[in-house]
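debug: dumping io for the single-chain case to check the tokenizer round-trip. Nothing else runs in this session.
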Amino acid sequence: MALLTGYRRQWLRGDLVAGVTVAAIAIPESLGYASIAGLPVQTGLYCALLPAILFALIASTRQLVVGADSATAALVAAGAGAVVAAGSPTYASTVAVLGLITAAILLLMAIARLGFLADLISQPVLAGFLSGVGVSLIIGKLPGMLGITASGTTWDKLVATVTNLGHINVTSAALALGVVVSMLFMERVLPKLPAALLAVVVFSVVAALIGAEGRGVSMVGDVPAGLPSLTLPTFDAGELTRLTATAAAIAVVILAQSAAVARSFATKNGYRDNTNQDLYGLAAANTGSALTGGFAINGSPPRTSAGDGAGSRSQLVNITMALVIGIVLLFATGLFEYLPSPVLDGVVFAIGVGLVKVGQLQAVRRTRLFEFGAAMLALVVVAFVGVEQGILLAVLVSLVDRLRRQHQPHDEVLVSDGDVAPRLLGRVQPGTPMDGILVYRFGTGLFFENAAYFDERVRDLVAAATAPVQAVVLDAAAMDDIDFTGTEVLRRQATDFAARGIRVFLAELSTDAENIVLRAGLGKVLTVVPRLEQAIIAAS
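debug: decoded output
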């Protein structure tokens, strides 16, 4: 527990100030996230009470702030909405069941030490996924901001907005636009201010002064005062089956985003965190949220960043945030009665704009077009097909891209005889005889998915040489591992070449790879040499 391990007294003031600062950001954001999830606005605040305290007591990371999040809220709405309609009497119970399944998956991940799964989604694809969520939020909240009634998919809402532009409520649009512009301005120019809170307060006051409710502007209305109670949801086996896929997608998003944020601040501030231990904390937080009327809990990048900027150094920041929000729920919920719905929609819209990673996507496009295409595919699918399908596609695309690079890794001919383009090694002594020697470097481990490509490349290079090749020297410095298929390809290749009078040398093997080669009995058909220079001399 990072909270109780090595706590320093000088951290206390910074943690308390950071906790209050984070609460100021979390309150308006949480209300918006609850609306994304299709739940009453107070449930967003419930996500920052018991869940935050449980996480603080269990997690290893010192600074990660948890609570409701836009990406997971959208997944909750998609998954629970596929089982029961949002707003129906059993919707909240279905969301709670989804939360418990998510918590169980996170717990299994922690027990199995699957923290490495955070790396299954590449950064470009994650950027595309989050940008897709942002586009979905932007389009989804436009009707409410403009006073237009719309429902259905993102595309349905976009069509409804475009076709009803003549029925805009000018007051709603002005209030919402004011929130969006002020939030984006403050986040860019005055990033340390609680932009969402200030925008909500200012434009709620403006709405009251101009009598916005009498102008057709809808209001959030009464919010129940008091803390949530512990409630165990009812469910049936069929519901569990239908929600499990969504829960798995939510768990992957929680792991990927939370781990990335926790690692970045641990590196920045010079301490270490344990992703597998944090998974226990996230499992506990999601359990607490499900049992107290909340929804999926995730690590929050903006709140963690705000806490760090305000001086947070321990998980006391989560506990302080929870206490402040608890006080608001006990004594100040009456203020929400004066909160216009378009103002809240404007907060969500601005959050969506912040999720669209334009700069990061541009950097990806400049660096690797394939990864940019994968990111844009994830964006489009998330925005217009579904968040659940988008995250599954994101994982699949990341893995396919990895397999593609593994299947055809970077390789090069280091020394060759004939017209095969040579790249001479600097560490090979000048004057070393090279006649009839082909030196080939393979850029990764030799596995079943790339063994055929490796075999084809070596045979093609031997066939392409204009002068007879008498020896093939394989630079295996990058072959950190060789599976059974790889050893069999090496055996067949060496045997075939031996029949043609061509010797095969294997050099620069790691200790593990060399042990594999020796256990496979490859020493009978090829020669293992420690260093490349020695192999070239032996082949001369």
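debug: round-trip ok. DSSP finds 21 helices and seven strands in the chain.
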